[in-house]
Each structure stands twice: as structure tokens, then as C-alpha cells.
Amino acid sequence: MTPEIALVLTLLVSALILLAKEILPVEQVSLLLVAILAASGVLPADVAFQGFASTTVIMLGCVMVLSRRLAESGLIARLSARIRQNTRPGSRSTLAWLMTVSAGLSSVVTNTSTTAVLIPAVSEMARRSGVRPGRFLMPVAFASMMGGSATLIGTSTNLAASGAVSRLGMEPFGVFEFAMVGLVVSISGIVMMTVLNPWLLPDNPEDTEHLPAAAKQFMATLVVPAGSRSIGMAVGDLGLDARALTALAVSRDGGRVAAHPRRKLREADRVIVRGARAGLLDALGDPLLGLDLDVPAPLDEPAHFILAEAILLPGARWIGQTLRSARAELGSNLCILALHRRGQETAALIERMRLKTGDVLLISGPRDQVEALDRDPDLSLLMPPEPGPPSEREGKHTVVALISAIAAGATGLLPFSVALLIAVLALVLTGRFSLQDMFGMISWRILILIGGMSSFGVAMQTSGTASWLAGNVVSALGGFGPVALLLGLGVLTIILTQPMSNAAAALTVLPVAIGVADQLGADPRPFAVMVTLSASLSFIAPFEPALLLVYGPGHYSIRDFLRAGIPLTLVSLCILLVLVPLLWPLGIAAF
After folding, report:
1. At a CB cut-off of 8 Å and minimum separation 6, what does 18 contact?
2. pLDDT value, residue 332
3. pLDDT range class, residue 569, cuts 50, 70, 90
4. Which 3 state secondary structure label does DSSP give 322?
5. Domain coordinates of the chain in residue numbers?
6. Which parts of the chain span the membrane according to its record (predicted)?
7. Average pLDDT for residues 249-262, to the nearest whole number?
8. Among 265, 272, 220, which Cα is nearest to 247's?
9. pLDDT for position 39
10. d(CA 360, CA 167)
11. How would you classify residue 576: left for phi > 0, otherwise alpha for psi between -120 and 50, otherwise beta?
């Protein structure tokens, strides 16, 4: 092992730890890798930065813009509403239709946008069918991932992998190269989740309701202001029970004491409570207590002020920050009232809590500014704003632009990156949105992550790390045949998707896969396809943004994702092992 290989492996392990523990945001980890690779001389500076100027970054940015425009136009929401009106109530038939729509839409729109827009309709149709929303939400999110794997633009993973294989000396993937595999996986997944739904996602005894979103339990801090009549009163006399609020602890003089019902309150005491948003909102108007923050919204929530719930997506800039820091960054007009975190009930002051992926923030503010948060790449509103009528026409322009770009790229009339860029520029030049709006629709965090990990993939190849790892893989599995090697690479990729993003896992394993093919004297393309689709079809844990969106609304636990996700992942992996060698011949004997 050379010093360069040792350094690259050390960086890989360090990156996995940083990402798994969310010590640093994903884009910082990506930039740190690039900086170390360039400073150490493993990569020349110009090569280290090439990942940020690749066609992959251009294509992905354009796809983000077009997907966001389609989601905001209301076309998807109107389609789901029409399906809701025309579908007869029935658990299995309704779920099959919803999963089919989700898979179809996500083949041209990002799976995150598809899932976010469908959540309200899916929840309502589940209730109409007499089942809890959690029985439908996870399968619909799974379907968006399966459908997204069918086309080049369906997921950022496919786009990133296409750029990576191009830099590694192969032809980039075609727009519909994965269509057959994606179709078979989607059909199999829909049948499996529809037939086995009662067993894979059984009713939760603690969630037999068809609870409204307002029943979600948030944590907040109430303060005893100076001159309040509550000074000297007992915690049990504050009327918290009437608001369905539970006192968890009392913060006093820098320490915490138990929130015993007979505990006498003092001036400046902070009462840490847990309860539904309705009770917390009612507490705002209590003359005895007030929330420990400056609340811009009047208590009666006039038309221009609203409450909204926003979920923190993986890699968000606020991860690791305190709630107080997040409040300061939002500005004076928007205010975070409370925090919901699944599986955790803490007596800590929420202002000091470090935010994590999947936290749900209860935000108050002017309607237009709260709705604008839906454009923030780090947040997703759990109830997206309803689109206005004018946006439907705008959506039709976006559909025409997107279809034209796909047609031009698929027929070879233009390079796909050029076709997508022209589509976006056409919408800008015709006044559909401004350049500033366009920049706001792009998740720069994801672009930085993919750009940096692309450079890391190049470093793995040029340093000899990929060949070294490939040699070890071949030594361990080569005796069982090429199909066993495909299986090993697929499993390795799926494992890495847990601490890393799907795209980052694919970019990390692709050089190894091509190294394995080189050592076997096989065609590298099926190995690259196996890694790419394995990364796109990992359903094990709710770390993919589409799955994270339904984690809270579906009242899921990690066990639910394991129960439903592991079988679906195994089925998808088996399909890949059969179809990949058939559609992309290995060039050597399979056994």
C-alpha cells in the first residue's frame, strides 16, 4: 500500500464518520476532501476542481430548476386531486394507483418534489380507504425512488454516476438506458407493497388514529415574565393539562428541577413543555405565561400570518446548530415556535438543542414568507402551499421545455446537458422566472457534494486506491463468479448509502467497480450500472430525502423502514442480478 492509497482510504473513512454522525454538513465534508487532495498533491489543483465544472453539475442544476417549477405550478397537485376524485375507496386499488402515479412522475421530476406534492393527497385517500396514512405514505415514497431510477434525470444519483463513468473513460449513460430495469423494479415493487402491505406495514397500536397533523407533539419553552401572576403559583395550577401540554422540567438559575405539580414558580423560570401545536398556540395568549421568543404573528392568525411545519432535510445548513442560531438566521419576520423530534422527549431547553436531520420546526410568520420557505433546499414544508390558477399555465410552459430537452437529448440532436440548459434559459428569456429565482431553485449543497465526490472518485482511480480495493474484492469473491462480484459491489454500495448520500456512495464505489471489471477482463459497463442502480434503490433507512419527508407524517419508526425496506431492497437487488447481465453482457462467462 502506497502513501497515496493510505491517505485516500483515511479520507474515505473520515468522511464516512463525519457524515454518519453529522459532525459537519455534507458540502463542508466534500470541500474538505477536495482541499486535502489538492494540498497533498494526490490531485493537481485543476483536476481537483474539475468536478465542480462538469456537465453533471450543469445537468443536475437544470433538472432541479425544471422539477421545482413543475412542483410549484400545481400540475402535479391537480393531477393527484383528479385521481383522488376518480378513484374508488379501497386499500389495495388506491395504493396501487398512487404508487403508479408516483413512479411515473418521478421519472421526469425529482423524487423529493414528487413525494412532497403527493403527501396531502395520499394522506386523505388513505383515510377515505379506512387505513392510517402510514400504510400509504412509505410505499408512495418508495415508488418515487423506483420510478426515478428508470431515467437519467429521475435521480441525482443517475446523473452523477453518468458524469463519473464519462470521466473514467466510458460512454455516459443514455436518457432511457435504465428504463427496462426501472420498469421491472417499479412493477415488482408496486405489486409487492400492494399485496404485502398489511404485513409489511401493520397498524401501530399507538397510532390507530387517523390523527390530523396538528396532533404532532412539539417541544417548546414557556417563560414566567416579570410581574406575572404566575409567580408563586404551582406548576399544576397553570392550566397546562387543559391545553394538553405536559411539563417536562423547569429551568432555573442555570440548572433544571423537576416539574412537580406543587413546584412553586419564580420570576424568569422557564417551563419546558411538550404538546400539540394548538395547545402551544393557545399558550401564547395566556396572561400568566409567554413563549420564550419574540413572536411576530398575532394570536388569532390573520390571513397574512400562518403556522407551518417544515422538516429539516439531510445535509441542511442548520444541522448541528442550536435552535437559537436557526431563529437568528431566519430573520425578524419568521419565528420558530417549537420543535418536534421523533423518538425523543427531553427536558433540555430547546434553544440549546442541536438540530438533527428529520427535526420538524413549527414556524410562524407572514404567509408569503412562510410559503417561500418551500424553495429552501434545506427545508420542506409538510403542507406545501396551494398553487394559484396562473401557475398552471406556467407549468405547461415548463412541461414543453422539459419534454423538448428530453427529446433533443434522447435523439442525439443535442448533448443532454446543452438541451437542458437551453430549456431553462428559454424559460428565463421568455419571462417565466428570473435568474435570481433560478438560483434560488438550485440546491447548491447537493451540487457541491457531487462535485467534490466526483473529484474524490478521480483520486481513488489515479492514486491506485480503486485498483487496490478491486484486487481485494476479486480475491474475496472472484472464485464465485462475476455475478457474485456484481452482488458484492451492489451490497457494498447499499451499505455506503446509509452514512452517505446515494449519489456519494455511487461515486465512491464506481472506480472500484471499473477496477474489478478491468482485472476480470470484462466489460465495465454492467458493473457501473449495477453500482448506480444499487445506490438509487436503497430503501433500508429514512435517510433519502423522499423517505424523510414521510417519516413524520406517517408516524413511522426505524423498525418500520427496516421491515418494509429490507425486503424491497432485496427484491430490487435480485432483479438487478438477473437483468444487468442480460441487458449489459459481461463479456465473460457468468459462472
Report:
1. 24, 29
2. 66
3. very high
4. strand
5. 213-381
6. 94-119, 139-161, 173-196, 399-430, 442-461, 473-496, 527-552, 564-584
7. 80
8. 272
9. 94
10. 39
11. alpha
Least Cα distance to 473 among 454, 490, 498 occurs for: 490
Rounded CA-CA distance 293/296 in Å is: 9
Angle between helices 91-106 and 111-128 (to 10 degrees): 170
Which helix (H) or strand (E) segment holds residue 251: the answer is strand 246-252
Which residue in the block uniquely carries the three cell numbers 387505513? 131
Q: Which residues contact 242 (CB under 8 A, 6 or more apart)?
A: none
Q: What are phi and psi of 250, to 5 degrees?
A: -120, 125
Which three three-digit cell numbers place residue 562? 427496516
Relative to beta strand 246-252, strand 270-275 is antiparallel
Residue 147: in which H helix or E strand, if any?
A: helix 134-148
Confidence band of 394 (pLDDT split at 50, 70, 90): low
What is the Cα–Cα distance from 478 to 210, expressed in whole angstroms?
52
Query: Is pLDDT above 90 for 216?
Result: no
Distance in angstroms (rounded) separating the CA atoms of residues 537 and 568:
9
pLDDT score, position 288: 60
Beta-bridge partners for 365: 306
Residue 485 is predicted with a pLDDT of 93
pLDDT 10s digits, 493-503 = 999 888 778 88
For 158-212, the pLDDT digits (tens) are: 999 998 898 888 999 999 999 999 999 999 999 999 999 888 887 654 444 444 4
Share the mean pLDDT of the chain.
Answer: 82
Residue type, 572: S
Nearest alpha carbon to residue 530 among 571, 491, 476:
491
DSSP 498-530: TTS-HHHHHHHHHHHHHHHHHHHT--HHHHHHH
Q: How far apart are CA 361 and CA 382, in angstroms?
A: 10
**pLDDT cut 90: percent of the chain above it:** 26
Check whether 390 has a pLDDT greater than 60.
Answer: no
CATH code of the domain made up of 213-381: 3.30.70.1450
Q: Within 13 Å, how many C-alpha atoms sit on residue 463's CB side?
A: 30
Start-end of H helices in 537-557: 545-551
Residue 270 is predicted with a pLDDT of 82
| Rounded CA Rg of the chain | 25
Please give the C-alpha separations between residue 540 and each of 199, 316, 559, 568, in angstroms, as whole numbers. 17, 21, 10, 8
Closest CA to 307 of 294, 318, 296: 296
- In degrees and rounded to multiples of 5, residue 322 shows phi and psi of -80, 160
